[in-house]
Design a protein that fits this description.
alpha/beta, globular, binds pyridoxal-5'-phosphate, 2 domains, 12 strands, 5-stranded antiparallel β-sheet, Aspartate Aminotransferase, domain 2
C-alpha cells in the first residue's frame, strides 16, 4: 500500500485537524485496505443482483410515477415488490412508504401472522427496545400481542455470546414464530452473520419444520452477499431509512419472504381481502427505486466508515465492537467511551461534521422509553435516517456510542475525524 498512501498526511482544506489525528487516520485507513477491498467485492455482487432484478422485472419509466387515492393498479408499487423479492431471494415482498418505521413493519408482520394461543419465541434474547411494547413486555391493555393472547418466550445468548442452540431446539418445538434479530441494536451482544442465521434456521427447521422463521433484518441488508431469506428464513423485515433506502427513500419499510406470509402481512397492513392491491404511492416510487439501486454502494460506504471508526478509535485506546478485522453482519460500530464527557464530545463532534445542521449542538435528553438520558447526533437529509452518519448513546455504563451510516466514505471519514478532534479539544483524549 506504500505506493498508494502518501506518508505525509493529506491536508483537509478548511478543516482544522491536528496533524497527529490526520496521521493516525491515514495509518488506520491503510490498515483497512484489505477489509475495504472485500467490502467493494460485496458491493459489486449485490449491485449486480439489484440491476439484474430491475432488468428481469422490466422496470419502466411508468413505474417511477405514482398514484393517488386508492392506488389500484399501481404499476410502480407492484413491480417494486417483485424487484425486492428477487433481490432478497423471496417469493414476494411488501414495500411501502406508508410503513412509518421499521418497528411498524415488524409489528405488521407479527400481528399479520400470530393468532390467539400461538407462541412466538425470540431466539436472540430480548428484542429491540421498541418491540417490548408491541409484544407486551411493558404492561397490559395497550393492544399488544399479549393482549390478544399471543404467548411470548425467549432464548438468551450463551455467556460466550453464541446462540443457545440446545435451548432453541427445545423452545421452538411448539412455536408458530421463531424470531431472530440480526443486528445488535442498542446492546453489547454480537450481530449475527448470515452464516450464523443459516445455522439457527437449520436448528429451528429440524426441531419444528412448521415454525416460521422471521428475521428483524434492520441494518443488515447488503452488508454481506446474501440476506437471510437466501439461507432459509421465511420472512425478513426492515426499514427504508436504513440500508435498503440508501438515504434516498424518504420513509417506509419492507417485508419479504414466503408468498402466503407476505399476503397475511398485507391483510394486516390494509384490510383482509384487499391486501397488496391498494395503497397509493404518491411521489415515492422513484425515490424507493433509486434508493434500492444505490443501496449496495451506499451500504459499502457505511461499512467502510464503520470499519474505519473501529480501527481509528481502537488506535486511540477505545474498545470497539466489532473489531475492524471481524466479519460484519451490520453497519453499526459500538465504541466504549469510558465516561459521559467522552461520549458527549464524540457525539457533538459527529454533528459538527454532518452535511445538515452542522452548527447545532446535540445535548443529552430524557427520551421516552429509555431509563437514562440519551444523546443523538444526526445531521441527515432524511430526519432520523441512520444509513446517514449518526451516533446515539444512552448516558450510562459502559458509555457505549453506537455509530452507524455514512452515505459516502469520504464524508463518513470526515465526520469521525471531526468527532476525534472535538474529543481532543475537550481534553478527552491524548495524542502522541
Ligand atoms: C432500527 C431498528 C429497528 C426498527 O426501528 P425503527 O426506528 O422503528 O425503524 C428494529 N430493530 C433493530 C435491530 C433496529 O436497529
Amino acid at each position: 500500500m506504500a505506493e498508494i498512501f502518501d506518508p505525509k498526511p493529506v491536508e483537509v482544506p478548511g478543516f482544522e485537524f491536528d496533524e497527529r489525528i490526520l496521521k493516525l487516520a491515514q495509518e488506520a485507513e491503510a490498515e483497512c485496505a484489505e477489509a475495504f477491498a472485500e467490502t467493494d467485492r460485496t458491493a459489486r455482487i449485490n449491485g449486480e443482483r439489484v440491476l439484474r432484478a430491475f432488468i428481469n422485472n422490466k422496470v419502466s419509466a411508468a413505474c417511477l410515477s405514482g398514484t393517488t387515492g386508492y392506488g389500484y393498479d399501481d404499476l410502480g408499487r407492484d413491480t417494486l415488490d417483485k424487484v425486492y423479492a428477487e433481490v432478497f431471494g423471496a417469493e414476494d415482498a411488501l414495500v411501502r412508504h406508508s410503513f412509518v418505521s421499521g418497528t411498524h413493519a415488524l409489528t405488521v408482520a407479527l400481528f399479520g401472522i400470530l393468532r390467539t394461543g400461538d407462541k412466538m419465541v425470540s431466539l436472540t434474547g430480548k428484542p429491540y427496545d421498541t418491540l417490548e411494547e408491541v409484544i407486551g413486555l411493558r404492561g397490559k391493555g395497550n393492544g399488544s400481542l399479549a393482549d390478544f393472547g399471543v404467548i411470548y418466550d425467549q432464548v438468551d445468548f450463551l455467556p460466550d455470546g453464541k446462540p443457545n442452540v440446545a435451548e432453541i431446539f427445545n423452545k421452538v418445538k411448539d412455536a408458530k414464530v421463531a424470531y431472530i434479530q440480526r443486528s445488535r441494536g442498542y446492546s453489547l451482544r454480537s450481530t449475527l452473520t448470515v452464516d450464523d442465521i443459516a445455522e439457527i434456521v437449520k436448528t429451528v427447521k429440524n426441531a419444528n419444520p412448521n415454525a416460521i422463521v422471521m428475521v428483524d433484518n434492520c441494518y443488515g441488508e447488503f452488508v454481506e452477499t446474501r440476506d437471510p431469506v437466501h439461507v432459509g428464513a421465511d420472512l425478513i423485515i426492515g426499514s427504508l431509512i436504513k440500508n435498503p433506502g440508501a438515504g434516498i427513500a424518504e420513509t417506509g419499510g419492507y417485508i419479504a419472504g414466503k408468498k402466503e406470509l407476505v399476503e397475511l402481512c398485507s391483510y394486516r397492513m390494509t384490510c383482509v381481502g384487499m391486501g397488496k392491491e391498494v395503497g397509493c404511492t404518491l411521489n415515492q416510487n422513484k425515490l424507493m427505486y433509486q434508493g434500492l439501486f444505490f443501496a449496495p454502494e451506499v451500504v459499502s460506504n457505511a461499512v467502510k466508515t464503520a470499519i474505519f471508526t473501529s480501527k481509528l478509535m481502537s488506535k486511540l485506546g477505545f474498545e470497539c465492537l466489532p473489531r475492524s478485522d471481524e466479519k460484519r453482519g451490520d453497519i453499526i460500530t459500538t465504541v466504549l467511551m469510558k465516561n459521559s464527557e467522552n461520549l458527549i464530545a464524540f457525539c457533538q463532534g459527529i454533528q459538527k461534521g454532518s452535511p445538515i445542521d452542522s452548527y447545532v449542538t446535540p445535548e443529552p435528553w430524557a427520551m421516552p422509553g429509555y431509563d437514562s438520558e440519551v444523546i443523538m447526533a444526526a445531521g441527515a437529509f432524511n430526519m432520523g435516517a441512520s444509513i446517514e452518519l449518526s451516533a446515539d448513546a444512552p448516558l450510562r455504563e459502559p458509555f457505549a456510542a453506537y455509530v452507524q451510516g455514512g452515505l459516502t466514505f469520504p464524508s463518513g471519514r470526515l465526520g469521525i475525524l471531526t468527532a476525534v478532534q472535538e474529543m481532543y479539544d475537550k481534553h478527552c483524549l491524548k495524542l502522541f
